[in-house]
Amino acid sequence: MLNQLGPREREVALAVAEGRTNAEIAETCYMSLPTVKAHVSHILTKLDLNNRVQIALLVYRAGLV
């Protein structure tokens, strides 16, 4: 399922699974806060998820964290 994500979306998904906030993701991944929010929104839409917890669970189940 994660193969549907682009490289930056995947990077954001991994950071979400690590429990990072949008602001922390923006700082560590060198993105603006609106860009991080857009990536999170795209991830939720592409993978038909409802929230960040579901992103984290998917990443964990894939064995990436």
In a few lines, what is going on in this structure?
This protein has 65 residues and is an all-alpha fold.
Describe this structure in words.
- The protein has one domain (2-61): Winged helix-like DNA-binding domain superfamily/Winged helix DNA-binding domain (Arc Repressor Mutant, subunit A, Orthogonal Bundle).
- With 65 residues, the protein is mainly α.
- Helix 2 (22-29) packs across helix 3.
- The radius of gyration is 10 Å and the shape is globular.
- It has helices at 7-17, 22-29, 33-46, 52-61.
> Beta-strand level of the residues, as a percent range?
under 5%
Quaternary organisation: single chain
Q: How many structural domains can be distinguished in the coordinates?
A: 1
CATH homologous superfamily identity: Winged helix-like DNA-binding domain superfamily/Winged helix DNA-binding domain
The total beta strand count reads 0
Any descriptors?
4 helices; 65 residues; 66% helix; single chain
List the helices and strands and how they pair.
Elements: H1 7-17, H2 22-29, H3 33-46, H4 52-61
